[in-house]
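pasting for the record
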Amino acid sequence: MGSGHRTPRPLGEWFEVTSRWSRPVARQNRVLDAESAWTEDGKLVFWVENQGVWLWAVDPTGDDPEVYDRENTPGQPWQPTGVALSVFLVHVAVFEAIMGAQAGASAAWITSQRLDQVLSPLSPIPGAAWRWPCPMHQLYAGDGLLAMAGPNYGAGETADTAAYREVFIAGRNLSAVSYLAKIDGVDWDWASWRQ
Protein backbone atom coordinates (compact mmCIF):
# COMPACT_ATOMS: atom_id res chain seq x y z
CA MET A 1 0.00 0.00 0.00
CA GLY A 2 1.01 3.64 -0.18
CA SER A 3 3.78 5.00 2.04
CA GLY A 4 5.44 1.59 2.28
CA HIS A 5 2.36 -0.34 3.52
CA ARG A 6 1.96 -3.96 2.51
CA THR A 7 -1.50 -4.74 1.15
CA PRO A 8 -3.03 -7.73 2.95
CA ARG A 9 -4.10 -10.35 0.38
CA PRO A 10 -7.89 -10.03 0.97
CA LEU A 11 -7.74 -6.24 0.54
CA GLY A 12 -5.75 -6.58 -2.69
CA GLU A 13 -8.36 -9.06 -3.95
CA TRP A 14 -11.15 -6.65 -2.93
CA PHE A 15 -9.69 -3.87 -5.09
CA GLU A 16 -9.05 -6.24 -7.99
CA VAL A 17 -12.64 -7.53 -8.00
CA THR A 18 -14.45 -4.28 -7.24
CA SER A 19 -12.50 -2.35 -9.87
CA ARG A 20 -14.39 -4.38 -12.50
CA TRP A 21 -17.81 -3.19 -11.35
CA SER A 22 -19.54 -0.27 -13.00
CA ARG A 23 -20.85 1.12 -9.67
CA PRO A 24 -18.71 1.67 -6.58
CA VAL A 25 -19.26 -1.04 -3.97
CA ALA A 26 -18.55 1.25 -1.01
CA ARG A 27 -20.95 4.18 -1.22
CA GLN A 28 -21.64 4.85 2.47
CA ASN A 29 -18.26 4.36 4.13
CA ARG A 30 -14.82 4.39 2.48
CA VAL A 31 -12.55 1.42 1.88
CA LEU A 32 -9.17 3.10 1.65
CA ASP A 33 -7.06 2.41 -1.40
CA ALA A 34 -3.31 1.86 -1.34
CA GLU A 35 -2.58 5.58 -1.37
CA SER A 36 -5.13 6.54 1.31
CA ALA A 37 -4.53 3.91 4.01
CA TRP A 38 -2.46 4.90 7.02
CA THR A 39 -0.91 3.31 10.09
CA GLU A 40 -2.16 4.30 13.53
CA ASP A 41 -1.02 2.73 16.81
CA GLY A 42 0.58 -0.11 14.85
CA LYS A 43 -2.62 -0.91 12.90
CA LEU A 44 -3.24 -0.35 9.19
CA VAL A 45 -6.49 1.64 8.83
CA PHE A 46 -8.42 0.40 5.77
CA TRP A 47 -12.11 1.40 6.24
CA VAL A 48 -13.47 4.71 7.55
CA GLU A 49 -17.04 5.65 8.48
CA ASN A 50 -18.37 8.38 6.18
CA GLN A 51 -18.10 11.13 8.81
CA GLY A 52 -14.79 9.84 10.14
CA VAL A 53 -16.14 8.83 13.56
CA TRP A 54 -15.27 5.10 13.34
CA LEU A 55 -12.21 3.27 12.02
CA TRP A 56 -11.41 -0.34 11.08
CA ALA A 57 -7.86 -1.64 10.83
CA VAL A 58 -5.68 -4.75 10.71
CA ASP A 59 -2.22 -5.67 11.86
CA PRO A 60 0.12 -4.96 8.94
CA THR A 61 1.43 -8.55 9.01
CA GLY A 62 -0.08 -11.89 8.11
CA ASP A 63 -1.95 -13.15 5.07
CA ASP A 64 -5.49 -12.69 6.41
CA PRO A 65 -5.23 -10.64 9.62
CA GLU A 66 -7.98 -10.08 12.16
CA VAL A 67 -9.94 -6.81 11.92
CA TYR A 68 -9.95 -4.29 14.78
CA ASP A 69 -12.20 -1.28 15.21
CA ARG A 70 -12.58 1.77 17.41
CA GLU A 71 -14.20 5.15 17.70
CA ASN A 72 -11.98 7.77 16.07
CA THR A 73 -11.26 9.59 19.31
CA PRO A 74 -7.75 10.11 20.76
CA GLY A 75 -6.91 7.46 23.32
CA GLN A 76 -9.58 4.96 22.28
CA PRO A 77 -8.02 1.49 22.12
CA TRP A 78 -8.40 -0.84 19.15
CA GLN A 79 -10.86 -3.67 19.89
CA PRO A 80 -10.65 -7.05 18.12
CA THR A 81 -13.73 -7.97 16.09
CA GLY A 82 -12.94 -11.69 16.08
CA VAL A 83 -13.30 -11.69 12.28
CA ALA A 84 -10.60 -12.18 9.64
CA LEU A 85 -10.22 -9.52 6.97
CA SER A 86 -11.45 -11.82 4.17
CA VAL A 87 -14.74 -12.43 6.05
CA PHE A 88 -15.06 -8.82 7.19
CA LEU A 89 -14.85 -7.56 3.61
CA VAL A 90 -17.88 -9.74 2.79
CA HIS A 91 -19.65 -8.01 5.69
CA VAL A 92 -18.57 -4.64 4.25
CA ALA A 93 -20.11 -5.60 0.88
CA VAL A 94 -23.35 -6.63 2.63
CA PHE A 95 -23.49 -3.38 4.61
CA GLU A 96 -22.79 -1.26 1.54
CA ALA A 97 -25.45 -3.15 -0.46
CA ILE A 98 -27.98 -2.37 2.27
CA MET A 99 -27.13 1.31 2.39
CA GLY A 100 -27.13 1.70 -1.40
CA ALA A 101 -30.27 -0.32 -2.14
CA GLN A 102 -32.99 0.98 -4.41
CA ALA A 103 -35.60 -1.35 -2.87
CA GLY A 104 -35.90 -1.34 0.90
CA ALA A 105 -36.74 0.69 3.96
CA SER A 106 -35.33 2.17 7.14
CA ALA A 107 -36.77 3.05 10.53
CA ALA A 108 -34.82 4.79 13.28
CA TRP A 109 -37.28 4.17 16.13
CA ILE A 110 -38.88 0.74 15.99
CA THR A 111 -39.98 -1.49 18.87
CA SER A 112 -38.36 -4.89 19.40
CA GLN A 113 -41.67 -6.57 18.59
CA ARG A 114 -41.97 -4.79 15.23
CA LEU A 115 -38.30 -5.41 14.50
CA ASP A 116 -38.86 -9.14 14.99
CA GLN A 117 -41.58 -8.95 12.33
CA VAL A 118 -39.32 -7.03 9.95
CA LEU A 119 -36.47 -9.51 10.41
CA SER A 120 -38.63 -12.67 10.44
CA PRO A 121 -37.56 -13.85 6.94
CA LEU A 122 -33.87 -13.20 7.69
CA SER A 123 -31.17 -14.83 9.83
CA PRO A 124 -28.14 -13.26 11.52
CA ILE A 125 -24.96 -13.48 9.46
CA PRO A 126 -22.39 -15.40 11.55
CA GLY A 127 -19.65 -13.21 12.97
CA ALA A 128 -21.36 -10.01 11.78
CA ALA A 129 -22.12 -8.41 15.14
CA TRP A 130 -20.76 -4.85 15.11
CA ARG A 131 -19.96 -2.19 17.70
CA TRP A 132 -20.74 0.52 15.14
CA PRO A 133 -22.89 2.55 14.90
CA CYS A 134 -23.30 1.38 18.49
CA PRO A 135 -22.84 -1.96 20.25
CA MET A 136 -25.15 -4.86 19.42
CA HIS A 137 -25.73 -4.06 15.73
CA GLN A 138 -26.03 -7.14 13.55
CA LEU A 139 -26.10 -7.91 9.82
CA TYR A 140 -28.81 -10.26 8.51
CA ALA A 141 -29.49 -12.11 5.26
CA GLY A 142 -32.48 -13.90 3.76
CA ASP A 143 -33.82 -14.87 0.36
CA GLY A 144 -33.36 -11.67 -1.65
CA LEU A 145 -33.04 -9.61 1.56
CA LEU A 146 -30.24 -8.02 3.59
CA ALA A 147 -30.54 -5.98 6.78
CA MET A 148 -28.67 -4.26 9.57
CA ALA A 149 -30.36 -3.65 12.91
CA GLY A 150 -29.46 -2.73 16.44
CA PRO A 151 -30.29 -0.56 19.43
CA ASN A 152 -31.12 3.10 19.02
CA TYR A 153 -31.00 4.96 22.28
CA GLY A 154 -31.31 8.39 23.72
CA ALA A 155 -30.08 10.15 26.85
CA GLY A 156 -29.85 7.92 29.90
CA GLU A 157 -30.05 4.70 27.88
CA THR A 158 -27.40 2.24 26.77
CA ALA A 159 -27.37 -0.40 24.04
CA ASP A 160 -28.55 -2.90 26.67
CA THR A 161 -31.40 -0.75 28.00
CA ALA A 162 -32.59 0.89 24.76
CA ALA A 163 -36.36 0.86 24.33
CA TYR A 164 -36.07 1.17 20.54
CA ARG A 165 -34.13 -0.32 17.67
CA GLU A 166 -33.15 0.92 14.22
CA VAL A 167 -33.26 -1.12 11.04
CA PHE A 168 -32.06 -0.74 7.48
CA ILE A 169 -33.38 -3.40 5.11
CA ALA A 170 -32.68 -3.95 1.42
CA GLY A 171 -34.35 -6.17 -1.12
CA ARG A 172 -33.31 -7.50 -4.48
CA ASN A 173 -36.47 -5.85 -5.85
CA LEU A 174 -39.72 -4.27 -4.65
CA SER A 175 -41.52 -7.59 -4.36
CA ALA A 176 -38.86 -8.85 -1.92
CA VAL A 177 -39.69 -6.02 0.51
CA SER A 178 -43.45 -5.86 -0.12
CA TYR A 179 -44.18 -7.65 3.19
CA LEU A 180 -42.82 -4.62 5.08
CA ALA A 181 -45.76 -2.40 4.03
CA LYS A 182 -48.11 -4.84 5.79
CA ILE A 183 -46.44 -4.49 9.20
CA ASP A 184 -48.57 -2.12 11.28
CA GLY A 185 -47.06 0.38 13.70
CA VAL A 186 -43.76 1.09 11.93
CA ASP A 187 -42.93 4.71 11.18
CA TRP A 188 -40.67 4.21 8.15
CA ASP A 189 -38.17 7.02 7.61
CA TRP A 190 -37.65 5.77 4.06
CA ALA A 191 -39.61 3.16 2.14
CA SER A 192 -39.01 2.46 -1.52
CA TRP A 193 -42.66 1.42 -2.12
CA ARG A 194 -43.77 5.00 -1.29
CA GLN A 195 -41.64 6.60 -3.98
